[in-house]
Amino acid sequence: MIIHTLGPDSTDSYAAAQSLISSEEDDIVGYPSFDAIIHQLEQLKGDCVLFPVAFQSARKAYGWKEFNYDYWDKVELMHVFSKKTKPMVLIENSRRTEDRAMIHPATTIFLEKYLSRTQETIPITFTDSKVKAWTAFQKKGLKYTIISEDVYEEEKNSYYQLVERYEPEMVWCLYKIKQNEEM
User: Fold this and answer.
1) What pLDDT was estimated at residue 58?
2) I need a labelling partner for 27 at 20 to 30 A (CA). Which of 9, 70, 78, 158 fits?
3) Of residues 31, 29, 10, 32, the one with CA closest to residue 21
4) How far apart are CA 48 and CA 28, in angstroms?
5) Cα–Cα dist 69/83, whole Å
6) Which letter does DSSP use for residue 72 in this model?
7) How far apart are CA 72 and CA 149, in angstroms?
8) Closest CA to 111 of 156, 164, 64, 152
9) Cis (ω within 30 of 0) for the bond into 105?
10) Measured between alpha carbons, how far is 153 from 175 in angstroms, rounded to an integer?
11) Helix (H) and strand (E) counts in the chain
12) Which residues of 162-180 are buried (b: 16+ CB within 10 A; e: fewer)?
């Protein structure tokens, strides 16, 4: 079984895919975004794709629900399971050069609740993964990001402050992409 999902191997999706590997023939192919997987779906016939139900595109109003309905006749739901995400953390940069946040769209609710409690209003920009959000946060000197805690622990420094921590349960859907004769 070949599983196509969000990569790199530090993402929650890749970790969830690893939990499905059961033989030497199984493999995981990581993509820079779920949009990239959907764009190549026709070429992946016979393989599997793994999506979290929290999938939200950073580019358009399209998520797991839309994928599930849009491709109902091209994919078969093989397995649904729940698994905790990696712990996530909201990070604040005390040396920021911009009062802006960069996050993955699926983590919006966490940041919105925090900003509401602190009565802050800042622009929020979205990217395809928490890994990409972390890179942009550092490179651009932004105020907030939400990333996996293990990524933060590897690179934390004195001016990045852990503000909040989250560890929600996620529902994952493994689909098989139908062959032409199955459609």
Assistant:
1) 86
2) 70
3) 29
4) 9
5) 23
6) T
7) 35
8) 164
9) no
10) 33
11) 6, 10
12) eeeeeeeebebbbbbbeee
- E strand or H helix at 105, and its extent? none
Residue 73 Cα to chain centre, angstroms? 25
142: pLDDT confidence band, cut at 50, 70 and 90? Answer: very high
**Long-range CB contacts for residues 116-120, cutoff 8 Å, separation at least 24:** none
Structure-token pair, residue 20: 């499905």
Q: Do the beta carbons of residue 93 and residue 160 sit within 8 Å?
A: yes
Rounded distance, CA 5 to CA 49, Å? 6
Q: Which residues pair with 144 in a beta bridge?
A: 92, 101
pTM of the predicted model as reported, rounded to 2 decimal places: 0.84
Nearest to 1 by CA among 68, 78, 64, 54: 78
Distance of CA 176 to the CA centre of its chain: 20
Q: Which domains does the chain have, with CATH numbers?
A: 2-84+169-182 (3.40.190.10), 88-166 (3.40.190.10)
**Residue percentage of the chain with pLDDT more than 90:** 86
Under the phi-then-psi rule, with left for phi > 0, alpha for psi from -120 to 50, and beta for the rest, what region is 161? Answer: beta
CB 170, CB 83: distance < 8 Å:
yes
